[in-house]
Amino acid sequence: MSSIIIFTFSILLLSPLAISSLLDAANNGGNNNLTAYEVIQSYGFPKGILPIGIIGYELDKHTGKFKAFFNGSCSFSLEGSYDLKYQSTIGGIISKGRLKDLTGVSVKVFFFWLNIVEVYRTEDELCFSVGIASACFPIDNFEICPQCGCGLDCNGVVDDREDKQVRKIRTDAIVSSI
């Protein structure tokens, strides 16, 4: 009987979902069990700007300092057009519709990796800035979280919903210099 209890307890402790839930509870003082994805949604961002796999986060509600933690770095391609890389810790200052001083996220532009330093929302678009230029995309491109390694097209299955075109990244981005 005790071995069954120990086995069940071990499974719960080793489960990524259980670890994530425990870390989220600890990071929020146990008062609020929001996930990192729910936190960014409360600031007006879609959850899909973060890939699947966050194991914890920190948020200082007074200063807006935000950090999210992965169990290692994470990289993927979106529709073969954009290569993205997330370090094991990403951070920035979050406020309603704006994530500035972003660290730990980069995008490959031609042959160069550039740091994404700011993400901001303008009505129905999300804009990503690399400092000297920015690109904006329809916000519905970010309803689904990508996965490390395979992005939005994992195991050849893009989506099981009827509205599959939401998953396809629209590449009619507006690029402007700042």
Task: Please outline what is shown here.
The protein is of the alpha+beta class.
Keywords:
18% helix, disordered N terminus, alpha+beta, at5g01610, DUF538 DOMAIN, disordered C terminus, globular, single chain
Average predicted confidence as pLDDT: 77
Task: Report the span from N to C terminus.
Answer: 65 Å
CATH topology of the largest domain: at5g01610, DUF538 DOMAIN
Radius of gyration: 18 Å
Describe the structure.
The chain is of the alpha+beta class. The chain has 2 domains: 1-33; 34-177, at5g01610, DUF538 DOMAIN, CATH 2.30.240. Helices cover 18% and strands 38% of the residues. It has helices at 2-14, 16-27, 36-42, and strands at residues 54-59, 65-70, 74-78, 82-95, 98-109, 112-115, 118-122, 125-129, 133-138, 174-177. Strands 1, 2, 3, 4, 5, 6, 7, 8, 9 and 10 form a 10-stranded antiparallel beta sheet that branches. The longest helix is centred in the N-terminal third of the chain and has 13 residues, at 2-14. The chain starts with a helix and ends with a strand. The model is unreliable at 1-31 and 158-178 (pLDDT under 50).
Question: What is the secondary structure topology, with strand pairs?
Answer:
Layout: H1 2-14, H2 16-27, H3 36-42, E1 54-59, E2 65-70, E3 74-78, E4 82-95, E5 98-109, E6 112-115, E7 118-122, E8 125-129, E9 133-138, E10 174-177
Antiparallel strand pairs: 1-2, 2-4, 3-4, 4-5, 5-6, 5-7, 7-8, 8-9, 9-10
